[in-house]
């Protein structure tokens, strides 16, 4: 399991956790892998006791590294904050 990484964007705190899936039998050991990516968004000023929302990132192409998967999670969270993702919102935070 990976350690959550964080970022700040437009008054929100973003935490990303990218968990590498097990490789398929036919996959090379050093090949790209799929990740399950979860982002948690909260208001930066709310602190540890503030309300947060958890969002699952839609399945994406395989990534070369956990860093690339984490960057995709941060980009997805920023898109939610910018209201670019249909059906997802942080308006209640």
Descriptive overview:
The protein has 93 residues and is α+β, with helices and mostly antiparallel strands. The chain has one domain. It has one helix and four strands; from the N terminus they run E-E-E-E-H. A four-stranded antiparallel beta sheet has the order 1-2-3-4, covered by helices on one side. A hairpin with a 2-residue loop joins strand 1 and strand 2 (12-20). The longest helix has 16 residues, at 66-81. The two termini are 27 Å apart. The mean pLDDT is 86.
List keywords for this structure.
93 residues; alpha+beta; four-stranded antiparallel β-sheet; 1 helix
Give a quick summary of the entry:
The protein has 93 residues and is an alpha+beta fold. 17% of the residues lie in helices and 30% in strands. It has one helix at residues 66-81; strands spanning 5-9, 12-20, 35-43, 52-56.
Record the strand order, biggest sheet.
1-2-3-4
The computed structural class is alpha+beta
Largest β-sheet summary: 4 strands, antiparallel
Terminal Cα span: 27 Å
Strand content: 25-35%
- In DSSP terms (H or I, runs of 4 or more residues), the helix count works out at 1
Question: Order of helices and strands, N to C?
Answer: EEEEH
Write the layout of secondary structure elements.
Layout: E1 5-9, E2 12-20, E3 35-43, E4 52-56, H1 66-81
Antiparallel strand pairs: 1-2, 2-3, 3-4
């Amino acid at each position: 399991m990976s350690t959550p990484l964080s970022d700040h964007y437009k008054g929100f705190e973003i935490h990303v956790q990218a968990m590498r899936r097990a490789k398929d039998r036919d996959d090379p050991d050093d090949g790209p892998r799929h990740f399950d990516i979860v982002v948690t968004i909260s208001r930066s000023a709310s602190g540890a006791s503030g309300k947060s929302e958890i969002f699952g990132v839609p399945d994406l192409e395989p990534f070369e590294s956990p860093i690339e998967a984490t960057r995709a999670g941060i980009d997805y969270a920023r898109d939610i904050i910018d209201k670019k993702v249909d059906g997802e919102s942080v308006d209640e935070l």
